[in-house]
Each structure stands twice: as C-alpha cells, then as structure tokens.
Amino acid sequence: MNARVVPETGTLLLPQPYLLFLGDTTIAGFAKTAQGLRDWAGDKCVGEFALPAATVSTGLTPMTPAEAVAAGARALVIGVANAGGIIPPAWRPALVEALEAGLDIVSGMHVRLRDVPELAEAADRLGRNLIDIRTPPASIAIGTGRKRSGKRLLTVGTDCALGKKYTALALHRAFVGRGIDATFRATGQTGIMIAGSGMPMDAVVADFEAGAAEMLSPDAPADHWDVIEGQGSILHPGFAAVSLGLLHGSQPDVFVVCHEPGRAEMLGTAGFGVPPVDDIVDLTLRLGRRTNPAIRCGGFSFNTSQLDEAEALALMARESERLGLPVGDPVRQGAGFDALVANCLSA
C-alpha cells in the first residue's frame, strides 16, 4: 500500500492535499469519490484533472498535475468508482504524468496500482508512492452474530451511489452537534479517504463480510453511536452480497433508507428497476432481525438534487405522511432532516 498507518488506531496517513482525477467519466454517479471528497474534505482538495472526453466535473479548478504541485498538492486521487473498479488504458498516460510531476497516487479501485506496469515502473523510477485504499486487513474472522455493546445506525439504499455515505456523514455530524458520543464508520474508499480509517467492504471475501462489519464496529460504551456507511443495495443484482453481510455484521439498532426520487433503473444495470422504499424497509427488517431482533427503521433520506426546493419539500412531506416516518435530505437539511435525526435517537 505504501501509506503510513498509526498502529494504535489503524488510521491511514495519506499524503494531502489532493488533486482529484476524473478520467474520461461521463456518468455523474461514477464520480462519487471525487464528489464526496469535494463535499466532505474540500479543504484537502486543490483542483480537478480530467481527460478531454470527460463530461463530469466537481466544479473545482481544472489543473494539470504540474499546476497542482505548484498549488501544494501531494497526491492525485482517482476520483472515479466505475463498474469493476478498473484502470483503463486511456487513463494511464495521465497517471504517469502525475507521477512525473511529483504526485503520489491514491486509488480506491479494485485493480491494484502496482498491477499496472506503466505505473509500477514510473513509481519505482521516480520514488513515488502508489497507495491502494481497497486493502482489507489480513486477519478478518468469520462473523459470530454475538451481540455487542453500544448503539449502531446503518444507512441502506434502494440502489448504489444515491446518498448512503452523505447520509451517514450528515447524521454523524448532527449527532455530534447534539452532544452525542458518535463515530463515523467508513465502509467504502471515499469514506475511508475522508475519515482516515475504515473497512473496504467490497474488497472483503464474501465469507468474511459479516466478520469485517463486526470488526469495524466493536463493543462500545452503552451511549455511544457508531454511524455506519452502507454499501450497495440488498436488492441489487450485482452488489446485494456486500449489503447483506454488512447488515448482519453491523447489527444496527436503527437503519435509514436512502433513495433518489425519479431514478428508474439501478445504476449500471439496465433492465432492473429501482425498488420502492417500502420493499427495502420490509426486507431489511426481516433479514436484520437475524442478528438484532430489535432493529427498527428510523426514517428515510432522499437525494433530491434533481428537484427544485419547492418540489423537494412537497415530495418529502407527502412521503413522510404516507410512510409514517420522517423523510429528510442530508444536503438540504431543514425540518425534515432534523426530524429524521430526532427519530433515529429516540428510544
């Protein structure tokens, strides 16, 4: 990995600030790593670097690697989470350019940076670091289902890339703001880059998913909350396995269903419709009771970024009345989100 780690906490010490690499991305959902870093670690980002074919932007200043180094950047972060986590050949000259300009590379892709010959050769020649975030610990035990002390909240979703990380971060911030002892537990590459530690759940062998979630959220004081970032969707044809392992292993006392109104098909999976939020609640309750019989739904987090303010507020109010639980937007905040926070914390 080549990243420094604090032995006592397992916290990664990554070279910062970052230049965010967008590759040739044309689907906004695949740029969620860059967008998440912009929104939750903006003070650690100096700009963005994209290939000519890219149509997605974070809104940060476009920079070449050399310009980013002059602005103080120490690492290029691959800000894309594409299908399969690959590093396409078209990206490689730009990544070598970043190494030659003086930047280390931080990646959350499934493909290891050192498995790309051009990158390994350039890094060795130039003395640069190639840092793979998706590297789980070597000694993960199989899940036991043992009840652990402390309280836990898990974000779940109707699909991928629609707000589970944002919701967990916003809820964690709100809990802390209310004087609650809480920890954000990252389970994906972007969350780990933001938090500095976590468990890359989608890089864990399937048999150890629940055990990895147990390791991520250990015994804690009775009034402590672990706010756990969800992954995938329990009804996604490709990613349901990681979602189920995370549900069983995290043993949430409360879960929040994340949803993007208006999304018709699951991301990257043509022909599979996004399920209703009601289905996710029902299935999460039935499966979650296996390791926590007291599991409950705290409410819903809607990504209303495609709606104007009036449309968003009206929709969330209607859905809250229909569902009988709070509905809020973690970015817009407001009364709906405040009600969601309060209900999650209620006994």
From TrEMBL:
Entry-linked InterPro entries: DgcN-like, DgcN-like_C, DgcN-like_N, P-loop_NTPase
Domain D-glutamate N-acetyltransferase-like N-terminal: 65-136
Pfam families: DUF1611, DUF1611_N
Chain ranges of the D-glutamate N-acetyltransferase-like C-terminal domain: 142-335
Top-rank taxon: Bacteria
Protein name, as recorded: DUF1611 domain-containing protein
